[in-house]
Amino acid sequence: MKNRLAELRHERQWSQEKLGTILGVSRQTIISIEKGRFDPSLPLAFQIANVFGLTIEDIFTPEEK
């Protein structure tokens, strides 16, 4: 799954650690999501969308095969 998490985080000048703290997850989790190595759970995806004031679809998109 592709995502805009790094882009959105940079727009707010947040570190990966700060976003992790806001979401209650580790910095490593943020890194893994940004690099596409880990897809967040649905509750975490909703939480991420809420933090940025966007919908899940605005942040996450399926990769075309």
UniProtKB/TrEMBL annotation:
It comes from the Bacteria. Residues 5-59 form the HTH cro/C1-type domain. One of its GO terms (molecular function) is DNA binding. InterPro entries: Cro/C1-type_HTH, Lambda_DNA-bd_dom_sf. Keywords: DNA-binding. It holds the Pfam family HTH_3. PANTHER family: DNA-BIDING PHAGE PROTEIN, TRACRIPTIONAL REGULATORY PROTEIN-RELATED-RELATED. This is DNA-binding protein.
